[in-house]
Write a structure and sequence with these properties.
The protein is α/β, with parallel strands linked by helices. The protein has two domains: 3-219 and 411-466, Metallo-beta-lactamase, Chain A (4-Layer Sandwich), CATH 3.60.15; 224-409, 3-Layer(aba) Sandwich (Rossmann fold). It has helices at 40-46, 66-69, 72-77, 88-119, 130-139, 224-240, 254-267, 281-292, 299-307, 313-316, 326-331, 353-360, 379-384, 415-422, 438-452, and strands at 3-8, 17-22, 26-30, 58-60, 84-87, 140-143, 149-152, 155-161, 169-177, 180-186, 209-213, 245-248, 275-279, 320-322, 339-343, 367-370, 389-392, 395-398, 402-405, 430-434, 464-466. The strands form four sheets. Strands 6-5-4-3-2-1-21 form a seven-stranded mixed beta sheet. Strands 7-8-9-10-11-20 form a six-stranded mixed beta sheet, with helices on one face. A six-stranded parallel beta sheet has the order 14-13-15-12-16-19, sandwiched between helices. Helix 4 (88-119) packs antiparallel against helix 5 (130-139), helix 4 (88-119) packs antiparallel against helix 8 and helix 14 (415-422) packs across helix 15. It is globular. The termini are close together.
Length: 467
């Protein structure tokens, strides 16, 4: 008998964490993610583990995004010493993500403790340290796709391509108990089949229980051609207004896809004369990792790079300027019009994008383009929902810039793709919907039943299911 307990991304999008327990396996976490929204001190401090980290035997990580990996340093700090299984590309990206997250956390902690010191309150101790980040990386045991490996007394795992970001994986966990095999499939985050550079998500066909994400369970994205036309139109209209474009983008995935799409427009002569900035040291470093893994990406998209004579994303867009230093970032503020600025964070919870908002979001000739999901409680979500006044850096700002969401550039599968993926299982496994807001999951559950006669559960936080 095996048990799954849902400790994160249960009726919400962020904080992915599910515990699987079985005599064949021990106690294993599928992901160990961080909540999104608020500052780093609040996010890390508020996430208390509802289990003893020292009791966990292993972690299986679907991919590197912080809402799936961000609590690993705290887990290690609290005593976890087991292996962390992930794909090879995820291991390379994890160092970049966790080191950057530590830097943000350290700065936020210093700022908060200075405020507390001034007011005579007790200081907050760090929940984890840079040494814990290093321990996480040493405990990683990277594995290639499609190779089965042992993870417990009678358990094996195999990674399949989820098509979400570089290195993202669908986890297939096979348990053997008294000669009988049981298979659990965890989708991780399933990619949008129209995403640039990524392969389509693979479709396993055998399982006894499936944990499937439902981020966009209530809607579909626009088709690829219509999405690119929408991007082309928004850019050109902003150019005609004499404005600038700000694109909040995740350092992994969205930044690289945007570079690719802008490169395609450039080579087609459809990009006007924009100055384009990748204003994110982390995204620059991630793009260099992507360049090392082009050989495992979508053949057709990679052919576009090689046909142009540029086997590198950065070189594919010749007008791209890389901004590593704070000084280079601040220089962009001198540009009054004609700048496309790709900067983190993707949900506007921190990073350089907020500084660009400070200089430009109150000007009506500018445009903000959202290309990824915006979680509840984030500044990005407030803007997408139409908030007209926001607060940053202690000041109030009137939102006069044009706010656009180009959903077709999302890295997540839409409703139709999710239903298609779930319907590929031949033996009608038990299906649990995770990683989605309640309305999205309920809509997906209803559509699965109406269209495919597939029943599904929507487990709440802390619920356990035996199989």
């Amino acid at each position: 008998m095996a048990t799954i307990t849902f400790y994160g991304a249960a009726q919400e999008v962020t904080g992915s964490c599910h515990m699987v327990e079985s005599p064949a396996l021990g106690r294993v976490l599928l992901d160990c993610g961080m909540q999104q929204g608020g500052d780093a001190v609040d996010r890390v401090g508020d996430d208390a583990f509802p289990f003893e980290p020292i009791s966990i035997d292993a972690v299986v990580l679907s991919h590197g995004h912080l809402d799936h990996s961000g609590m690993l340093p705290k887990l290690v700090n609290r005593g976890f010493e087991g292996p962390i299984y992930c794909t090879q590309a995820t291991h390379q990206l994890l160092r970049i993500l966790l080191e950057d997250a530590w830097g943000l956390y350290e700065r936020d902690l210093e700022r908060e403790n200075l405020r507390r010191q001034r007011s005579g309150r007790d200081l907050i101790e760090a929940e984890y340290t840079a040494r814990d980040v290093e321990k996480v990386l040493r405990q990683c045991d990277p594995k290639p796709y499609h190779v089965s490996f042992s993870i417990g007394p009678s358990a094996n795992v195999r990674f399949m391509d989820a098509g979400h970001i570089l290195g993202s994986a669908i986890v297939e966990l096979t348990l053997t108990d008294k000669g009988e095999e049981k298979v659990l499939v965890f989708s991780g985050d399933l990619g949008n089949n129209d995403s640039a550079l990524m392969n389509d998500a693979e479709t396993p066909t055998k399982a006894d229980i499936v944990l499937m994400e439902g981020t966009y369970g209530d809607r579909d994205h626009r088709p690829h051609d219509a999405t690119i036309e929408e991007l082309r139109t928004v850019l050109h209209e902003t150019w005609e207004r004499g404005g600038n474009v700000m694109i909040p983008a995740f350092a992994i995935g969205r930044s690289q896809e945007m570079i690719f799409h802008l490169g395609c427009l450039y080579h087609a002569g459809e990009l006007d004369d924009w100055q384009i900035f990748l204003d994110s040291p982390m995204a620059i470093e991630v793009t260099e990792v992507y360049d090392r893994w082009l050989h495992i990406m979508d053949d057709e998209d990679i052919r576009c790079l090689t046909d142009s004579g540029r086997e590198s994303l950065q070189k594919f867009l010749p007008t791209l300027k890389l901004c590593r230093s704070a000084e280079e970032s601040m220089e962009i503020n001198k540009i009054k019009q004609g700048a496309i600025i790709i900067a983190g964070s993707g949900m506007c919870t921190g990073g350089r994008i907020r500084h660009h908002f400070k200089h430009r979001i109150w000007r009506e000739n500018n445009t903000v383009i959202f290309i990824g999901f915006q979680a509840q409680g984030t500044l990005g979500r407030l803007l997408v929902d139409g908030k007209k006044e926001i607060k940053m850096f202690g000041d109030e700002f009137r939102v006069r810039a044009r706010i656009e969401t180009i959903g077709g550039l999302s890295a997540h599968a839409g409703q139709t793709a999710l239903i298609h993926w779930a319907s590929n299982f031949e033996n009608k496994p038990r299906l649990c919907l995770v990683h989605g807001e309640v309305n999205a999951l309920e809509a997906l559950s209803q559509k699965l039943w109406t269209d495919k006669a597939i029943r599904s559960d929507i487990p709440a936080y802390g619920r356990s299911i035996s199989f």
